[in-house]
Amino acid sequence: MARQGSYRGRRGGRGGGGGGGGGRRKKVCRFCAAPQENILDYKNVPLLKRYLDDEFQIRKARQTGTCRKHQALLAKEIKVAREIALIPFVPE
Q1: Within a domain: residue 1?
Q2: Of 7, 48, 61, 78, which cross-links 71 as Cys (Cβ 3.0–4.6 Å)?
Q3: Taking CA 82 as the corner, what is the angle to CA 77 and CA 84, rounded to the nearest 5 degrees?
Q4: What's the rounded Cα separation, in Å, for the pair 9 and 30?
Q5: Which residues of 33-69 are buried (b: 16+ CB within 10 A; e: fewer)?
Q6: Are the C-beta atoms of 75 and 58 separated by less than 8 Å?
Q7: What's the average model confidence in pLDDT over 82-90?
Q8: 6-39 pLDDT, tens per residue?
Q9: Distance between CA atoms of residues 75 and 58, nearest Å
């Protein structure tokens, strides 16, 4: 007999991790993991463009996996690069 109330799916948990397969890997901040290769600078345009979406908006930390400290630095460097016109404000 089925129980009444909220249905949580087959496994009865909230989300991915633990137990059986199918869970997501935890995202790791690439600036914390390898600080020597990933230098955060406004002149490093290819690296900064990786953190912009189709409409040239800054992607959220949840999407990119960056930590809070590096997300703030990243946003600051993107804004500096926009002021110098290395990165456009809007798509063309």
Answers
A1: no
A2: 61
A3: 95
A4: 34
A5: eeeeeeebebeeeebbeebbeeeeeeeebeebebeee
A6: yes
A7: 94
A8: 555 555 555 555 556 678 888 889 899 998 888 8
A9: 7
**How many domains does one find in the chain?**
1
Rounded distance between C-alpha atoms, residue 89 and residue 86, angstroms: 10
**Residue 11: both structure tokens together:** 């496994």
* Domain extent for 48: 30-83
Q: Find the CATH number of the domain harbouring 55.
A: 4.10.640.10
- Alpha-helical regions (H) of the chain: 30-33, 45-49, 61-64, 68-83
Q: Report the pLDDT value the prediction gives residue 26, as an integer from 0 to 100.
A: 82
Is the overall model pTM greater than 0.85, yes or no?
A: no
* 54 residue type, one letter: D
